[in-house]
Design goal:
Protein name (chain A): Raffinose/stachyose/melibiose transport system permease protein
CATH superfamily of the largest domain in chain B: Periplasmic binding protein-like II
CATH topology of the largest domain in chain B: D-Maltodextrin-Binding Protein, domain 2
GO biological process, one term (chain A): transmembrane transport
Distance between the termini of chain B: 77 Å
Number of helices of chain B: 20
Domain ABC transmembrane type-1 (chain A): 71-260
Number of domains of chain B: 2
CATH class of the largest domain in chain B: Alpha Beta
Number of strands of chain A: 0
Strand content of chain A: under 5%
Number of domains of chain A: 1
Keywords (chain A): Cell membrane, Membrane, Transmembrane, Transmembrane helix, Transport
GO cellular component, one term (chain A): plasma membrane
Number of strands of chain B: 11
Distance between the termini of chain A: 27 Å
Largest sheet of chain B: 6 strands, mixed
Oligomer: heterodimer
CATH superfamily of chain A: MetI-like
């Protein structure tokens, strides 16, 4: 590739990412700064007057500081579900790949079923009710794990196949038991795919709207995506507050990504080189 | 080994968070806590909070916890899901009329017909929360509203126009407004639901011309396409497009744009439900005095009247464990003290459905214009969706087509007749 063409393609990439990522974000930011009347125009313009602090305070104070409860709930929900998914996904993927038998094919069938079958809301609620888990965060965590586990297992299983069996054998000869083998040899080697699962599932769970809406009713159980409805209705929407809320709930994942950017990229490329 | 330390820190963190989830949900002692589910939006929440506060002051042993839900189709699904699983809040606010019938009130809601406050509720509202077995299962919350035309008072006084009582007068006004270089009729088809007012708001006139239209329509004997009075709504909508009275961006404008054009005097008429007064009040308070309202004009000036939308109902779920406390709350909402709490939160947006609720004298002009229709000698009739369970899901798409000149009005009416057929058959109505 000649230097000119390289610059050209680099420039193009910057342009595309500006249009796709920066412009919508700038729109959110600008609208969040406006007052109600100006924001109702929904135009891409510089605010005539700045209301950053007013809007911020109003959004945080809305419905007795509901946003703070929501952040706590969403954080717990995301961290715990993703942790469970990584641990169980890796274990199941490891066993399915390493010990093929009649049972593993049955298990794989159910993993695929979990991926294909659409979940039905009302029967799921009945199950949760009979277990006493409805309207609790534990129940919601189990639901998120159930919905995301199949995909994680498939990812882990494919990746375990690239780890040579000789490593397992060497560890066993050196005296490692099954749990030691998994946690000290295999899991560290799975880092690239662990990172992938964490990124994909965290985004999915943090942004989940419909599942918490149906399975987690109640004011104390609100998650961040549900707070968006505080400022939105058919006849009267406060776009300035709505977009301030969007901004606030977009920032934490963004910060996490900025800080862990190096690990995430390193994890993914490490997998690419090793694979 | 640093890595294993990291892992154990992470595991410990996760375990700690799991323990925290177990701490939520503690027991309440002697006070009863009622849960109260309202649709989202600032107005609904402000009303509910004001009611809850006033009620708690009068009943210290009962606490009211407000919860919100989305509106629209998502909200309908949520209500049905929660009723079906027995997890509905003690009290909830939901539409009256045909949507009330769709949640199976006989099975899911507490019977309120024996309550003493029923005597003070206006009969026009009782009809729309009556279950098929003849019992009332709801109380009114919020105010009644009209479907008609908002107009800009400044444009009217500048051009020396008067309020039209007939369609011909309305069109004559439009011609003068257009000649003065203003937009005569605002339409906002980006939000498709705003397109239905010419048809739905015309029902008073339909009812005046053919008093048995609703009954016959429910029984599959009358049709929009074959009833000359009912077809008028579609024809009117096509007419304002054909004569070029619409704003240029009618296809892409939003409901918010419509309110702005109306309030700031860019346009003269905006067909809408009087719900919008609240939105104008919060977004364009300085223009609130410039906005007035009149009923959809018909053929006969002596028979002009308002098509009325009933307020939401307040219902007690059959699964509620605190039905007695919930009944106290509902009785409070349906009392003059309840009206006062609502007025304190929102101001007056329309007439209450409870007898004895006084309205303050300094109401916005759009509300003042609305009140005479509800008064003693007023001319008002409920909209079709409150007197007939038949309402097709695609009316808004059809009115957009008719209002943009894509489909002739007679075709649109015939298509709507087809649309309601499926819905009537789903409901299992006789005659379909």
């Amino acid at each position: 590739m000649s230097p000119q063409r390289r610059y050209l393609s680099g420039l193009l990439a910057i342009l595309v990412s500006t249009v796709v990522f920066v412009i919508p974000f700038a729109f959110i930011l600008l609208t969040a700064l406006k007052d109600k009347k100006e924001s109702a125009l929904r135009s891409f313009s510089w605010p005539a007057s700045f209301h950053l602090w007013d809007n911020l305070v109003q959004v945080i104070q809305a419905r007795d500081y509901m946003l703070l409860t929501a952040f706590l709930n969403s954080t717990i929900l995301t961290v715990v579900s993703v942790t469970l998914m990584v641990v169980f996904g890796a274990m199941v993927g490891f066993v399915l790949q390493r010990r093929p038998s009649i049972w593993t094919s049955i298990a794989s069938f159910f993993v695929l079923v979990g991926l294909i079958m659409p979940p039905a809301v009302v029967p799921t609620i009945w199950v949760l009710q009979s277990l006493g888990l409805f309207k609790t965060l534990h129940g919601m965590i189990l639901i998120e794990v159930a919905y995301g586990l199949s995909f994680s297992i498939l990812l882990f299983r494919a990746f375990v196949a690239t780890i040579p069996r000789e490593l397992d054998e060497a560890a066993t000869i050196d005296g490692a038991g099954p749990l030691q083998l998994f946690f000290r040899i295999i899991l560290p080697l799975l880092k690239p795919v662990v990172v992938t699962v964490i990124v994909v599932q965290s985004v999915a769970i943090f942004n989940d709207f419909t599942n918490p809406l149906y399975y987690l009713p109640g004011k104390q159980n609100v998650t961040v995506q549900l707070t968006l409805y505080n400022f939105q209705s058919m006849f009267d929407t406060s776009y300035n507050l709505l977009f301030m809320n969007v901004l606030l709930i977009t920032i934490p994942p963004l910060i996490v990504f900025l800080f862990f950017n190096r690990q995430i990229v390193a994890g993914m490329t490490a997998g690419a080189v090793k694979g | 080994m640093p890595r294993s330390k990291n892992w154990s820190v992470l595991a410990g963190f996760a375990a700690g968070l799991t323990v925290m989830t177990a701490l939520s949900g503690s027991a309440f002692a002697d006070t009863t806590t009622l849960t109260f589910l309202v649709p989202s939006g600032e107005e609904n929440v402000a009303r509910a909070q004001s009611l809850a506060k006033a009620f708690e002051a009068a009943n210290p042993d009962i606490k009211v916890d407000i919860d919100t839900r989305p509106g629209g189709a998502e909200g309908d699904n949520l209500i049905k899901t929660r009723l079906a699983t027995g997890e509905m809040s003690d009290i909830f606010q939901y539409n009256s009329g045909s949507l009330f019938q769709a949640i199976n009130p006989q099975q899911n809601l507490v019977d309120l017909s024996g309550e003493p406050w029923q005597a003070d509720v206006q009969d026009i509202f009782k009809k729309v929360v009556t279950a098929p077995d003849g019992t009332q299962r709801g109380a009114p919350i919020g105010t009644g509203m009209g479907g008609g035309i908002y107009y800009n008072k400044k444009i009217y006084s500048d051009l020396g126009l008067s309020i039209p009582k007939t369609w011909a007068e309305f069109m004559a006004n439009n011609a003068k407004i257009k000649a003065a270089g203003k937009v005569a009729v605002i339409q906002t088809f980006k939000d498709t639901w705003t397109s239905q007012l010419f048809v739905l708001g015309d029902f008073y006139n339909v009812n005046a011309a053919e008093p048995d239209f609703a009954t016959k329509f429910t029984g599959n004997q009358a049709k929009f396409a074959t009833s000359p009075a009912a077809l008028k709504g579609f024809e009117h909508q096509a007419e304002v497009f054909k004569d070029g009275y619409l704003n240029e961006d009618f296809g892409a404008a939003t409901y918010d744009d419509g309110l702005r054009k109306l309030a700031t005097g860019e346009g003269a008429h905006y067909p809408m439900l009087t719900f919008a007064t609240g939105a104008i009040k919060t977004t364009y308070p300085e223009h609130l005095g410039d906005v007035g309202f009149f009923a959809m004009p018909g053929d006969d000036a002596t028979k002009n009247g308002l098509t009325v939308w009933m307020p939401d109902g307040l219902y007690i779920a059959g699964s509620s464990e605190h039905a007695d406390a919930a009944k106290k709350f509902v009785a409070f909402v349906a009392s003059p003290a309840g009206c006062e709490a609502q007025t304190a939160a929102l101001g007056v947006t329309g007439p209450y459905m409870v007898k004895g609720c006084a309205l303050p004298t300094d109401v916005p002009p759009a509300v003042a214009d609305l009140l005479p229709y509800f008064g003693e000698n007023g001319a008002a009739s409920p909209a079709l969706e409150f007197v007939s369970p038949v309402k097709g899901p695609s009316l808004e798409q059809i009115t957009v087509e008719v209002g943009s000149g894509i489909r002739p009005p007679a075709d649109g009416a015939a298509l709507y007749d087809e649309d309601v057929k499926k819905q009537a058959q789903q409901l299992g109505l006789p005659g379909w």
